[in-house]
Amino acid sequence: MISLLLAVIYAAFISLGLPDALLGAAWPIMHAQMGVPLSYAGIVTFIIAMGTVVSSLMSDRLTLRLGAGKVTAISVGLTAFALLGFSFSNRFWMLLAFAIPYGLGAGSVDAALNNYVALHYSSRHMSWLHCMWGVGCSIGPSIMGWALTGGQNNWPLGYRAVGLIQVGLTLLILLSLPLWRGRAAAETGEIKVKPMSLRELVTLPGAKEIMLTFFCYCALESTAGLWASSFLVFHHGLDKETAAACASLFYIGITVGRAGNGFIAERFSDTRLTRMGFVLMGLSVIVLLLPLGKAAAMAGLIILGMGCAPVYPCIIHATPIRFGREKSQAFIGVQMASAYMGSTLMPPLFGLLANHISVGLYPVYMAIILTVMMLMHERVVKQTERAA
Fold it and tell me: Helix (H, G, I), strand (E, B), or coil: what is residue 310?
């Protein structure tokens, strides 16, 4: 029964990644058909991001009241509703309206699932589950590509297909609810916890530092993925077609790295694996900084992805140990909110620097973020060890 529940959670992590790259894949056609500027995609993504921040901060109260299984089912259902709404939208304001439930659904399910896995499963499964997110991110654009082939430009079909997959997953999670309750009762001993406010959380040792760590991680990951192609084109002179394909090397590095991380996660602590990731990320930044040519730059992107691979899942998995099982849902909620803020604010900031100074600052920008992230993580480790 536990294995069946784990399969459901794996499917849920794939569903988290499925919609993430749909807008980027379809927007060149969507904006033309709706008669809005290309830049308006930023408005849609901003509304989605703000929704995820709000729902991440609410996840503690929601999960305590409803349970992780119900929160996951409701959240995936909201996402399905939003995606199906996108598929029937023929006006830009309709996209903005459906972006609200899209964001609210994404944030809650992310926080609830991450906390549930951190509490009930090993670090190995946390890495593999986040690898499944990468699988979902790869499948989503493929579905949209299928909908756009043959000159059909039928982007609503792509959204509808993914929306229907989410509907099916919602039904699957609803059927699995008894498994979620049984697992929680058996392993937690029904620990009594109460919701925590953001004000209460930030006063605890390591809270501000862990929020900054997550802010920096997603700032780095999002900036690296968004601007990799531009860096290869304008700094290394790669042609646009090749650069577009090579930009995926970063995500390939993350996905392969998380798959491999699962095999060694039982041999090393979460903290050690996180530090190993930092070392690889630092090495990649050096490779990208040095004038070693196009091939080295592409290798640097793969190394950067592999360095990112253990950091996010390992820090999340360590949350119940560092801050206590009774506080883990609240902490993971604010960690998710901080992460979304980093991915929302920092890539556009680099865009301004690239536009007004040089896209060659790409590795310098990431080096600064990485340095802050490492310092904050080490402070978290020291402060939580002292508190324990």
Answer: helix
